[in-house]
Amino acid sequence: MNKRMTRRSFLQTASAATALCSIVPRHVLGGPGYTPPSEQLTKAVIGVGGMGLHHLGMGDAKLLAVCDVDAARLENALRTAART
Question: 31, 12 in Cβ contact below 8 A?
Answer without folding.
Answer: no
